[in-house]
Amino acid sequence: MKIEQYTPAEERLFYILLAFGGLVSVIGLGAAYYMEHFGHVVSGMTNQVFWGLPHVFGIFLIVAASGVLNVASIGSVFGKKVYKPRAPLSGLLAIIMLAAGLFIIMLDLGRADRVLIAATHVNLTSVFGWNMIFYPVFFGVVGLYLWTLMDRRMHGYSKAVGVSAFIWRLAMTTGTGSIFGFVVARQAYQSAILAPMFIIMSFAWGLAVFLLVQRSMYAWNNMELHPSVRQRLKNLLAIFIAAVFYFVVVYHLTNIYYAKETAFEHFILVSGGIFPVLFWGGYIVLGTLLPLFLLYHPAIWPKSGSVCAASILTIIGGFCLLYVFIIGGQAFPLDMFPGMEVSSTFFDGVVGTYTPSLPEILLSLGGLGVGFTLTVVGVRVLHFLPQDDLAKLQDAGHAFD
Amino acid sequence: MLRTFRLAVCALSAVTALVSTGAVAGESRVPKPAITIENPGKCVAPVDEMRRNHMDMLKHTRDKTLREGVRGMKTSLNGCIECHASKKTGSVLGNENFCQSCHSYAAVSLDCWSCHQPKANFKATGALPAGHDSPTGNASTAGAKQ
Amino acid sequence: MTERNQTEKNSDKSTAARRNFIGAVAAAGGLAAIAPGIHLVQVSQANTPPRPAGEAASKAVRWGMLIDTTKCSSGCNDCVTACATENGINETVKDARQGSQWIRKIDIKEVKTGRSHSLPMMCQHCANPPCVDVCPTGASMKRADGIVLVDRHICIGCRYCMMACPYKARSFVHQPLTDQNPEVPRGQGCVESCTFCVHRIDKGQQPACVETCTKAGHNAMLFGDLNDPNSEIARRVAQVTTTQVRADLKLDLGVRYQGI
Ligand code: SF4
Ligand code: SF4
C-alpha cells in the first residue's frame, strides 16, 4: 500500500480540501436556516415557479447517485473485470451523492423541521412517498454491498447483493423520473418516457462524475489510467451521452406530435427566453455535441484531459437539461381553458419567471460541498483508489469485453 | 458495561436533581413560569390531567376535527385560548402568558402558533391578495404574455 | 357549551324545515318553470343544517359549487375580497407572485370568436384529487364530504401538490404570518388552498364568497350538496349544461361552471 503514504504537503492539501468542503457545507446550512427563518420570501421561488435551483441540484445529485453505481454493477452483475476494482469507489460515491442530494431537497422544504414526518407518515399513492422508502433502502443495500466488497469473508455475497443494489437503483431512478411522469396537470411532464429517460440520464451523469473523481484520485497519486481501461470507459460515456440524446429527441418529438403540446415545445425550444438558450447552447452543444466530439475525435481523445473535459461538459449539460425541464416546465402557463386567452391576478396564462436568490444558490452549492467533503474523507479513510491489476487483465486477454 | 451505564444514569439524575432544586430555590437564572389562571375552576379537566395530557388531548381533537370534521369536541385549542388568554395582552403568548411562560420554562418548543391565532376574540381582517390593485390582467410583472 | 348546542339544534330544525318548504314550493311550481334569479336568492340564503357536535362529516354529502359565468362580471372582485376577509389573507408581500390566492378572478376570451367571460377560480375540490395522490405525507386530504384540505400539522412544504394541481389552486405561504382568523389557521412553510370555508359549512353557513356574491345581488355562485337530489345545486346541475374545467382529466370536480 505504498501509494497510501502521504507526504506532508499532501497532508496539508488534504486538510485544505477538507476545510474548503466543510466551509461550503456550513454556508449551505446557514443559507437553509436563513430561508427557514424568514420563509421562502428570501428565495426567488414563487407560487408560479415553486421548485427552483435547489431542486435542480438535488434531483441531479439523486439521479447521478443511482448512475454512479453503474460502474460497480457492470463489474459485479455483468462480471466485467475492468470494472471490478472500481466497484468500491462507485458504491461510496453513490451513497455520498444521494446524501448530498437529499440534503438539498430536505433543507429546502417549507417545514424542514418536519423531515421526520416525511419518514413516519408515508402516503403510498405518492411517488414522493415511494421515494421516502427507496432512499433509505438504497443507503442500506449499497452499504451492505460495500461491506461485501471490502470484507474478504463477505466476498461470497457480493454478487447477490450487487444484483439487488442494481435492481433497487433502477427502481429508485424510475421513482425519481415518475415524480414528474405522473403529473397530469402540466404539459411538460406526464409522459411514460420520463422513467427510462431518467435512468439513461443517471447512467451518463453518474459515469461522468465517477470519471472525474477517479481522475482526481489518480492525479493525486501521480498515476495514469491504463490506456485500454481509459478507452473502455470513455466509449461507455460516449454511448450514454448519445443514449440520453436519443431519449431527449424522442421526448420532444412525441410532444410536438401531440397538437396540444406544440405551444409548450415552441416555448422550450424557440421562444422561451433563457430556456431555449440553455437547451440548445447548454445541453445540445456543450453537453452533448462537444463531449462526443472530444471523446471520438481520433486526435483529441488520446490526449490527457479530454475525457475529463468531456465529463465536466456532460455534467454541465445535465444541469442545463434539468433546469429547462424543471423550471421551464413550471414557467409555461397551465392550459386550463384550451383555445382561450386567459388573464388574472394570479398570473394565469403568463410565463413564469424565476431568478434564483443567493440563499438558494448557497444551499445548492452547500449540497455539493457536503458531497465533496464526504468524498474527500471517504476516499482518504477507506482507501478506495481503483487499482488495476494490469498483468491479470492482460493475461485474461478477453477481459476488456 | 451495564453497570457503567447505570452509574452514569445515577450521576446524571443527581446532577439534574441538584440543578432543579436550585431552580426551585430561586437560584437558577431560569425564571419560574408566571402562570396566571384567568378563569380558575372552569377547565375541561382537572389540573393534573391537563398538565400531563393536554398535548394528547389537543392532538386527538386536531385530528378528529380536521380530518373527520368533528366539531364541538370537549377540548379545543380555541377553547383554551378563549379562557387562558391574558386579560392584559389578550394572548396566550408572551413571556408572562399561559402557554409560552410554561413552555419556555419546560424548554418544550411550541409549534401551534406559527399557524394558530394566539389571541382571544381576534378578528382577522382581509386584504385583496397582492396583485389585485387593478382588477385583472395586471400580471405584466411576471414576464412576457404568452 | 350546552347553550350553544341548544341553539345549534334549534337552527338545525328551523333550517331543515325551511329547506323542506322551499323544496315543496319548487315542486309545486314545477321544475321547468324555475326562474333562476329569484329562486337562487332564496336557496342561497337557506343554509344547510349544521352538523351536530361530535358528528363526523358524512360520506352521503358531496359539497359542490355551481358558478354561472353569465352573471359574473369582469372587474368584480366581491368573492375574492370576501374570501380574504373570512380567511384572514391579509399579509403584504413584496413580490405579488409570492402571495397566497385561494380564489381569483380569471378573464377568458375565446381566441376565435372573441367571446369573453369572467369567472372565479379556486380549488375545484376534485373527487379524485391529484394533490392528495401525490402528497408524500398524507397532509393533502379529502374529507368524507368531498372537501379537500391541507392538514398543516403534517404538511412538510414540499410543494409537490402545487405541481400536481391542474388549476393552480394552491399557494405556498412564503413568510411568517400573525393575523390569522382563529378559525382559519394558516402559516409559513405550508401549502394552502380554498377550504370551501369548511368552518362555516360545518356551522350550517355558506362559504363566504357565495354568501357575498348572493348578498350583492350577483347570484353567480350557488353552493350545496351535489348528492342530495332535492338540493338546488343538484337540480340545476341536472338541468343545465355545466362544464368541469379540464374535464379531460376526469377528476370529477366539485365546482362546476355554467355558460362557458
Ligand atoms: S383543484 Fe387542485 S388543490 Fe383542489 S382538489 Fe383538485 S388538485 Fe387538489
Ligand atoms: S406541500 Fe404539504 S400538502 Fe403539499 S404535497 Fe407537500 S406535504 Fe403534501
Verbal overview:
The complex is a heterotrimer of chains A (about 400), B (about 150) and C (about 260). With about 400 residues, chain A is an all-alpha fold. Chain A has a single domain, classed as Formate dehydrogenase/DMSO reductase domain (Formate dehydrogenase/DMSO reductase fold, Up-down Bundle), CATH 1.20.1630.10. Helix content of chain A is about 70%, strand content about 0%. Chain A has 14 helices and 1 strand; from the N terminus they run ααααααααααααβαα. The two termini of chain A are about 30 Å apart. Chain B has a domain at about 30-115. Chain B contains 4 helices and no strands. Chain B starts with a helix and ends in a 40-residue tail after the last helix. Residues about 1-5, about 15-25 and about 135-145 of chain B have low confidence and may be disordered. Chain C has a single domain (about 50-260), classed as Alpha-Beta Plaits. Chain C has helices spanning about 1-30, 35-45, 80-85, 130-135, 160-165, 200, 210-215, 230-240; strands at about 65-70, 105-110, 115-120, 140, 150, 170, 190, 220-225, 240-245, 255-260. In chain C, helix 2 (about 35-45) packs across helix 7 (about 210-215) and helix 3 packs across helix 7. Mean pLDDT of chain C is about 85; it is low at about 1-45. Strand 1 of chain A pairs antiparallel with strand 2 of chain C, so a sheet runs across the interface. The structure holds iron/sulfur cluster (SF4) (2 copies). One iron/sulfur cluster (SF4) binds near residues 148 and 167 of chain C. One iron/sulfur cluster binds near residues 137 and 159 of chain C.
* Strand coverage percent of chain C: 15-25%
State the low-pLDDT regions of chain C, or none: 1-46
Give the termini distance of chain C in whole angstroms.
47 Å
- One letter per element, helices H and strands E, the order of chain A comes to HHHHHHHHHHHHEHH
**Number of DSSP helices of chain C?**
8
- What name is given to the CATH topology of chain C? Alpha-Beta Plaits
The rough form of chain C would be described as: globular
Query: What is the CATH class of chain A?
Result: Mainly Alpha
Contiguous runs where pLDDT drops below 50 for at least 5 residues of chain A: 397-401
Biggest sheet, spatial arrangement of strands of chain C: 8-1-10-9
- Rg of chain A computed from alpha carbons, rounded to a whole number of angstroms: 22 Å
Global Rg of chain C: 18 Å
Number of helices of chain A: 14
What is the CATH homology-level superfamily of chain A?
Formate dehydrogenase/DMSO reductase domain
CATH class of chain C: Alpha Beta
Largest sheet of chain A: none
How much is the average pLDDT of chain A? 89
